[in-house]
Amino acid sequence: MVFLSLPACGQDVAVSSPAASFDSFDRAVMANPKSELPYIARAEAYFKAGQGDKALSDLQTALKIAPKSVPALELRGDIFFSQSNFVKAAEVYTLALWYDAKNAILFNKRGNVYVRMGNNDRAIRSYSRAIALSPGDFKPYFNRGQLFYNTGQWRAAIADFSKVLELSPAQDVALFMRGNSYCKIGSEEKSSSDFSKCLEHNPSNTFAYNARGRLYMQKGDYEKAREDFSKALALNPSDSIALMNMASYHWTARKDKKQALRFAARAYKAGFAAAKPRYDTGFDMTFLKGLSEDKEFRALAETQEGSAARGDE
Fold this sequence. Notes:
By secondary structure, the protein is mainly α. It has 18 helices and no strands. The radius of gyration is 23 Å and the shape is elongated.
């Protein structure tokens, strides 16, 4: 029941900043044209403004001046990562580590790249090296825990998310992920407790409301489930997962087919067909139960999912 595409922890990303001024950076470059530092500073500003190509150009100049500059190489790797050029990012981070073999941040970032490349073994080794070098940093624990979760290593994931929470107790996403991990090994009470703690730290976490509500549904505590799904919808009326959860509630708890189909239609209109594959618990048979066996619902699902696959508006 977990959203699988959580952002990598500790990975810099570009943020578009309209009308950004680079005058001071330009003056610094003009004043020190033989130093790599002003080029790196301007490249970082370009990157943060969403101008990756200009940033790469400045970094190329910086590396001509100082070929072993780890900050320049790291930023170059960050830009390639943001552009989904993962092979190049891995090469650049590896080169930077050649010059700074004890840089935990670089090992963590390289682990993130390996995950995107599907090389899980190398990713785990990189995260583990980052942890060995900087055991007080929660980020590589979180990233390794997420990888353990996604590869079905639930208990290892629990151990890593627990370490994250030991180092940084307010990490609501770690609580959410540990809750899902507990659910996978059948520890529903611990799972529900983590979802509740997650919501204490972040009352706007719709994923946690949906996850806890589904646990309530499984236990037959339908009104508490409805409350959680309603809270998720109050935060985001277009939450397709919460809408489909409400469809299941009306079908299972209220025996109200009309309302169930109405919520299901709203869920598909809100993009449920696209969101469904991002969750690892099947909505069709496992959670929706009887609703998925209804002819009208199946017809609705087939029509909407077929449209989504074709890219229809």
